[in-house]
Design brief:
By secondary structure, the chain is mainly alpha-helical. Helices cover 49% and strands 3% of the residues.
């Protein structure tokens, strides 16, 4: 069985990470009651691999372009994205990976294996919350309560409002924590090597669950007056204490399992994507030690990026070695993020936020460079303790995650200038509903205008 799992996962990595399309992992769902083809181990592995794909592919490329950390060129399909042209056909693969693989696998894990495998189910619930968060933060209203009930005759699931989804995220994570706190003896078997993230360490998964609860609580800072206190409470409960607690992607580094940022630039998409000038300039202007690790050298052996209006220059930098070697792990939920959440929550509650802000920046520098930040750099980076600088420092630290885009929408920081050569001259705040949902789901909440704000975005 271990060899079978390894073969399936490597095949899935090859297809989902290099092609970016719906994968063979979909076949996991064809016969969920047959223990030969569907086991909690296989379902968990499928969820993690597809989560790695989602975290390092289209959703993050798009959000990174919107926040000018990345820049698309006219060599390929990223150029129109940089001009804010995103169609309902452009987001199909991302939707299918989240719904057709990750959330479906989590549904089966919960439906068929919850009673005897609470640890597998608990990890699956954390991954469900992470991916459902990706979906609602990019599409707004999305299906969940009726999403996986085709066997009951529900083939056109109703959409939950985003407000409802945020309620579900918290309850899913609460259930995950309960499952992960159960005694080991309550499991017929427990995750080990099939958990590529923490090797079955339930204590670390509980920490991640609480950080996600804090992430989603603070996301509602514009619609929930208690958001900051909730976020601070969850961070305190998490017990997360160092980069060793980070939930990272895993890539074996073989041709079947390259880091997807590496694969994107070293496959047949070279020069499709560059880093953004605004992001590079922020690192350069502050003599940030993460510069040479976050950004690769350009053709002049310097570090440069494309401005929002520039889809033609190809001599600029790509993503650096800290994120884009064959086997580089990329942080999905991290200690640095937890400390940034703590800093913002304390600021909003009129508490001393500077220690948490310093710890956040220090954690990021150590993770990216492998070396501790100097006291001088930390002092300079955290000298101003206001919302603008907390979000700015978080923007630099949480490169290649969706969080800078989420923060930009709810706070307006950093103060980005949209592509002035675009038709809208307005940075998109969402993705359009996928074409299949519009065509085949009469109950879908269809939104085509990418400047239509989400429920929690009141800025």
């Amino acid at each position: 069985m271990k060899k079978y799992i390894k073969s399936i996962i490597l095949s899935a990595l090859s297809i989902s990470l290099l092609a970016g399309c719906q994968t063979e992992l979909d076949t996991f769902n064809e016969n969920p009651n047959n223990p030969i083809t569907t086991t909690p181990s296989l379902l968990l592995a499928a969820m993690e691999v597809s989560t790695f794909s989602t975290h390092t592919s289209g959703l993050i490329r798009n959000s990174g372009i919107f926040t000018q950390q990345l820049a698309g060129t006219d060599v390929g399909q990223m150029g129109p994205i940089s001009r804010y042209v995103i169609t309902e056909n452009d987001v199909t693969n991302e939707w299918n990976t989240v719904y057709g693989t990750t959330l479906m696998s989590g549904h089966i894990l919960n439906r068929d294996f919850a009673a005897n495998y609470p640890y597998y189910n608990g990890i699956g619930q954390v991954l469900t919350a992470l991916n459902l968060g990706y979906a609602t933060d990019m599409w707004g209203d999305v299906p969940y309560d009726e999403a996986f009930r085709a066997e009951e005759g529900i083939k056109a699931p109703k959409y939950n409002t985003q407000e409802q989804i945020y309620q579900r995220l918290q309850s899913i994570l609460d259930e995950a924590i309960v499952n992960l706190q159960k005694p080991a003896a309550s499991n017929l078997s427990t995750p080990k090597e099939d958990d590529f993230i923490f090797k079955g360490d339930t204590k670390k998964w509980i920490k991640i669950a609480y950080v996600l609860k804090a992430r989603y609580a603070l996301r509602l800072s514009q619609v929930d007056s208690g958001a900051a206190q909730k976020a601070l409470t969850y961070i305190t409960q998490s017990g997360i204490s160092s980069n060793a607690d980070d939930a990272n992607t895993y890539f074996p580094g073989t041709a079947n399992g390259w880091n997807q940022w590496y694969a994107f630039n070293n496959g047949n998409r070279e020069n499709y994507l560059k880093v953004g000038k605004y992001f590079v300039d922020q690192l350069k202007n502050s003599s940030d030690p993460r510069l040479e690790f976050s950004i690769a050298e350009d053709e002049d052996e310097d570090y440069s990026g494309n401005a929002a209006e520039d889809q033609e220059t190809l001599t600029t930098s790509y993503i650096g070695s800290a994120y884009a070697l064959q086997d580089t792990p990329v942080g999905m939920v991290t200690y640095a993020e937890a400390k940034f959440i703590e800093a913002e929550a304390k600021l909003r509650l009129n508490q001393n936020a500077q220690p948490a802000l310093q710890q956040a920046v220090a954690a990021s520098v150590l993770k990216v460079t492998g070396t501790a930040a100097t006291p001088a750099f930390l002092a300079t980076a955290t000298a101003t303790v206001d919302l603008a600088n907390i979000i700015q420092q978080k923007y630099l630290a949480l490169f290649l995650t969706m969080e800078p885009f989420n923060d930009y929408r709810r706070t307006g920081f950093p103060a980005l200038i949209p592509n002035q050569l675009s038709n809208t001259k307005t940075i998109p705040v969402r993705l359009p509903t996928p074409v299949e949902e519009r065509q085949y789901n009469a109950n879908a909440t269809v939104v085509s205008n990418v400047t239509t704000k989400l429920w929690w975005d009141k800025d």
